[in-house]
Amino acid sequence: MRTIRASRGNQRECKGWTQEAALRMLMNNLDPEVAERPEDLVVYGGSGKAARNWDCYDAIVRSLKVLENDETLLVQSGKPVAVFRTHVHAPRVLISNSMLVPKWATWDEFRRLEALGLTMYGQMTAGSWILHRIAGDPPGNL
Question: How far is it, in rounded angstroms, from Cα 32 to Cα 11?
Answer without folding.
Answer: 22
